[in-house]
Amino acid sequence: MAWIWLGLALLVLVAELLSGTIFLLFVSLGMLLPGLVLFFRPELPFSIQLLMFSVIVLIGLVVYMRSRKRKRFREDNSLNSPDVGKLVEVKEEGNRASYRGSGWDVMLDGSPEPLKPGRYRIVEVRGTVLIVAYPQADNTSANAR
Q: What sections of the protein cross the membrane (predicted)?
């Protein structure tokens, strides 16, 4: 039975190398453990073998998911977001604004304090949070007066 586990581990490892993912690596490692343990304890029940396999695969997936950080939108998201550069109006003091027909959390760039009512320019979008800054004065309208 040990050779079956080890042979399957090798086949899954080859599939992993061909697919380029990392998830099959955990399955291969999970198959390797019961195969190695069976060399020392050949009378090990099949249910315990399956339990060892399952635990190793789950541990591998949990470790992988915890180590992989989700990348949030960064400052260079202006290339991907049509909202950057647009104006949003905060109608009452707080951190909420209505923009494009839905409610958004709004945060002043670099400040966690509530915003005063007024118009702000969107400089970044982080999920459902609009990062805003004070709009720059339009010099052409000031010179025309």
A: 44-64
